[in-house]
Amino acid sequence: MTILMVVGVAAKIASIAAKTATFALKARAMAMVGFGLLNAMFNPLDGVPTLLHGGVKYLGKSVLAVGKAGINTLETATFKLRQLTGIQSYDLIKAADRMDIGQGIWRANDAAGESVMLLAIRQNDNWYALNRMGQPWRQRLENFAFTRVFTPSRLQKLMPAKYTRQIIQKSLPHSITKTNNAINVLNDPGLIDESNHVLRMLLGDDSINARNAYLEHLKSVNNDLVNTSASHFIIDTSNGSHAIASLNPGYYKAWKGAEKAEASNRQFIRLYKKNFDTHFKNENFNPAVIADDIIHELFHGKPDTFDVTYALDPQRYQKGYQNLNMVQLLNLGKGRHPIPADIIAKAKDLNTSDRFIKALNLTPSELGSGYFNKAQSIINADSYAISTSLLSQLATDKQGFLHNIVIMKAAVDRSGKYGIGPDVLIQLNRI
């Protein structure tokens, strides 16, 4: 039995070889930090060349022993190897997202029948070891037998909760930066005209009162972000939801009311791991996209907003930026977003206890027309989250911001008194 071994090791892993006296101890020390397990895996070709000579057989047996322990040791192995090397899980996912990377069996010339299963990259009909950045490594692989193309989905299925937390930890600083940028833009008298476009189209109101209310919400969210870490997220591995994440209002209030020491252990945002990891992969591993998702959830916190509607995913994924379809948010901002039939039915129930329905407080005019009033934008989390992302873009990429404003404004003007449709595509989160 062999197990999957991702090829590639950071230079720091060589320190094990340098500090350990005998070859047997070198090999055993490496095996103990998770040799052969995803993201704690590395290639004997990469950084420790002595492993190729006389020791492959021993290492092969060590790999087999670790493999029999099963996937339950993955998180420990991942953590230990990251301590030693700083390897990032998403680098391995990125590397796998290529058709020229294959899974196969490699057998060293002097391995006496021992083999390992690994990933390699093909160039000019030759196979090479793959380092953790998805690049060919050193000499071509002899005795490599290709078995199949390796896809990211297979790797993601095995990725531990620590992988998801790592994404969050990398994205949180982007969330803080974005909210800081948006606050500065809203306070800048020289950018009033530009920011008013966002307030008017996405929040339905560019008045001073609307600006100040949004500012207060942003400050609350920014304060929460500064005090949030990856440990505050519940990693849900079930398949029972189509959502990416959800903030629990009760858990959030408990977190806010807890003493500092206790608050550090309070979890209040649930991440649906399969959906979240897939979303991150689809958006080409862009932490700025996840930053917007985190901001969205925290607008459910102290601002106590709801999910009336969302910006849509047009499923046009591009490296370097995110595509978003703004049609629903723009229709909500101009009072032309249709009210779903189930919400109308619930709103007509005078005895309803539904928090969302009570917050909407639909007027007779809304119920009669079948459209949300544009004022409902101010209780919609995604209207705030995307507004924040756009205002941050104004601070960092004014040309990109103005391009997006032209696209949205043209769609609004063209629609007149009717709804906008079908697509209004903008580009955010350029990296």
Report on the architecture of this protein:
The chain has 431 residues and is α+β, with helices and mostly antiparallel strands. It folds into 2 domains: 4-150, no CATH class; 161-337 and 372-428, Collagenase (Catalytic Domain) (3-Layer(aba) Sandwich). Helices cover 48% and strands 12% of the residues. It has helices spanning 14-19, 23-32, 56-69, 74-85, 89-96, 152-158, 161-187, 192-202, 208-226, 249-257, 260-263, 273-282, 287-298, 327-333, 341-347, 355-360, 364-369, 381-396, 398-415; strands spanning 4-5, 101-106, 116-123, 126-130, 136-140, 144-149, 233-236, 245-247, 269-272, 322-325, 425-428. The strands form 3 sheets. Strands 1, 2, 3, 4, 5 and 6 form a 6-stranded mixed beta sheet that branches. Helix 6 packs antiparallel against helix 12, helix 7 (161-187) packs across helix 18 (381-396) and helix 8 (192-202) crosses helix 19. It is globular. It starts with a strand and ends with a strand. Residues 1-18, 20-24 and 26-93 have low confidence and may be disordered.
Summarize the structure.
With 431 residues, the chain is an alpha+beta fold.
